[in-house]
Each structure stands twice: as structure tokens, then as C-alpha cells.
Amino acid sequence: MVIGKLKTMSSDEAVQVIRSGDHIHLSSVASSPQCLINAMCDRGRAGEFRNVHIHHLHTEGPAPYANAEFEGIFQLDSFFVGANVRNQTQAGYADYIPVFLGETQRLYREGYLPCNVAMVQVCPPDEYGYVSLGTSVDATLAAVEIADKVIAVINPHVPRTFGDAMIPVSMIDIFVEDDTPLQSAQFLIPDNIETAIGKHCADLIEDGATLQLGIGAIPNAVLHQLGGHKNLGIHTEMFANGVIPLVESGVINGVDKAIDCGKMVATFLLGSQKLYDFVHNNPQVLMMDVGYTNDPFLIAKNPKVTAINSALQIDLTGQICADSLGTKFYSGVGGQVDFVYGASRSKGGKAIIAMPSVTGKGTSKIAPVLLAGAGIVTTRAHIHWLVTEYGSVNLYGRSLQERARLIISIAHPSHQESLDKAAFERFDSHYHYIIQP
User: Fold this and answer.
1) Are residues 171 and 210 in the same domain?
2) How much is the pTM?
């Protein structure tokens, strides 16, 4: 077929460029190119190649190439362990490359990883010969820049977003046509614990702040509490539907930002169709390279940067585990350190780690020591604010014993006595002498 002056081919024809030993990059999150993934897996099942390496941030939707049936055919080395490949990674059928999200693009641009084929989705070309990467710029732009071959799925469901997302069709070698809707996500109404955490975080957010919020229940709960704020800005790695009412009401307008004033800056998106419609042809939204969004020194240029990130576990000294449960990898380093450091350097900024005090099974997420094998993502020297449903504490500049007292004060009440005993045993009797009010 022909779209404008562009000749397209089928997915089956397009993936014929893949050879044994190739490194493949897939566009991420909502924009994973499922038609190309399916065609690639069909070739793999037919035994047409072996040892093909797959790279991406986390993706939504099926990821069959990580399954046990493809052992020796595909090797997934992801930059973040998403839910769709978590079991396979923990079982050893897939692997994980620990890397700060902001540096994922360096892996390609500086030659740490080759990219033989980049497989992406784009919006239909405009009259000037440009397409948009839509909801997934992240490290995908870097992969497109260095790939031997770029396969682009032209999909009318991909929103036309601006910033680094806009690329000329001359950067693309092979075009495929598809009209499958992007992967979407719906977010539930926050429960009582999430609402309490959201209120504590919102109390720390000042008017004129620039926000970084991740995805999930807690960021959504925070956004629900911000209706009375003024002149908030967005500079984040991603955002979801929760920002839309705040933009429509004028709470988020970006007027106090020092860079990209008046613009909402992100590197990937995930939400419902309403979000994708919101960003389509919206000049207020800039979809930028992850090396830009997650550069701590650029982040710090905006005033009052307030970064809210989550944790799987914290110990009594303030060490944050956010990527693994003991030795089992659960997610990834992601952009947490990028934004914790950037917010900490921002004038009036606040770096916040927010989490429920216990797991769904009632186990305390505040522990005397991290689980054996757990990875430290945010160090005890980086952490500032910690928030649970029981309150917020600022650990910056506090001694180890002071930290222990503060952290325990917002632990679940049923675990405070055992945590206090562990702190006493760790710091000896001097602990109580120093920290008792």
C-alpha cells in the first residue's frame, strides 16, 4: 500500500530484516508494536533465527518473546522489569540491565549496546514529511538514530505529539500500516491508605511547584488532592490521566517554571484514550528524549521541584529498595535517582519517597535491615522526605539514630514496638538516651 508517498509492507515482510544475533529495540509502554512483535515471534517459532536480543523499557501488553518457549531464540535484556515479563525474568528466561532511566539513551548513543533493528510506532505523516513517536520517546529516539534498520508502524491511534517526538520520515527505512489501539490503563479510585498518603504528599507541595509523579495509585491519589493549589508545573518522565482535570481547571499551567515555561514535559505516557486524545496536537505538551527529562541538572533548573516516588522497602537508616524483593527483581532503578537528586538540587525542591507502611499481607515495609539480596536504589545519603499513611518525616541531615526514631514514628502501629527494639539492639542503649523526647 501507499500512504502519501510512503510505500508500506506487511508486518511479516518487514521483520524479514531480522537476522540471528541482532539486537532489537522495541518502543515502550503504551506504544509497543504488537503487530511486529507477533510477526517476529512467528519467525522465531519457525526456527528462522537464533540469539536475537530484545531491549526496551517496560512495555504494556503481551511480551511473548520472553517466554520459555523462545529460550535460545530471543534473549530479553530489558531496562526495566515490567509486570508482563516479571515472572520470566525471575525464572531466568529474561534478564535486566540495571541503569538510570535517564542514561538508557546513552547505552545506544555511546555504543554500549548495538541496535540492528528499531521497531516503533508513529502517527501518520504530516504535509511536511514528519511523523511523531507519540507516547514513547524515552530511549526509542536514540535507538532510531543509530539503528541499521528502522521499522515504523504507521498507526492512526498514535497521537501527534511535539518536542523530540517529531522525526522526519527520512529516518525510517520500512513502513507498516496498522490500526490497533494503543495499550491503555485505567486507574481505580484511591483507597483510604492511598488517600491518606496522597494528602500528606499534597501538604508538602507548594504553589508554583514543578511536579514529577510516577504511575499508579499513590501518584493518582496525590493529584486528587491538588485542586486547591496554584500554578503547578509538570517536568516528569511520565504522566497519566490524573493531570487532565488539573490542567482544565488551571491548577497546572507551568507559568512558574524556569525552563519550558508553560509546557508539560514528559518522555512517555500511559493512560486511557482520553489521555491520548488530550496530548494529540497539544502544543502545551512536549514529549522529550529521556536524556533531557531525566537529567538531574536540568531538572534542578526549575524551582520547587517536588518528586514523588515509591519504594518496596526501607531500612531504619533510610536505604531505599525499589527494584527487587530480596534477590528477585521486581521492577527497575527507573528514574527515581534522577529525580530524587534533581529535586534535591532544585531551589525549594523536595524529594519524596511515598509508600504504604505495610504490604497487602500486613508485612512492614519499614524493616530493621533490607531483605538479603535487596538492591539499594536511593541511598541513605540521597533520601529526604519519607511519607506513609501515618505522616511525613524529613530525614535529611539527621543522624542514624534520629532517622530510626523518625522512620519508626510513621510505621504501622502494630510494628513500631518490634522496630523500636531492633533500633535499640542496633544502636545499643545510647539509642534511647539520644532519641527519647
Assistant:
1) no
2) 0.95
What CATH number does residue 245 fall under?
A: 3.40.1080.20
Distances (CA, A) of 16 to 19, 149, 170, 314, 315: 8, 11, 20, 48, 50
Residues 376 and 227 in one domain: yes
- Do 75 and 33 reside in the same domain of the chain? yes
* Count: domains in the chain: 2
pLDDT by residue (tens digit) across 265-319?
999 999 999 999 999 999 999 999 999 999 999 999 999 999 999 999 999 999 9
Residue-wise pLDDT tens digits, 329-359: 999 999 999 999 999 999 999 999 999 999 9
Are the beta carbons of 176 and 199 closer than 8 angstroms?
no
Residues assigned a catalytic role: 237
Residue 41's domain spans which residues? Answer: 2-177
List Cβ<8 Å contacts ≥24 apart for 419-425: 419/316, 419/364, 419/366, 419/368, 422/316, 422/368, 423/316, 423/368
Strands (E), 20-82: 23-26, 52-55, 74-78
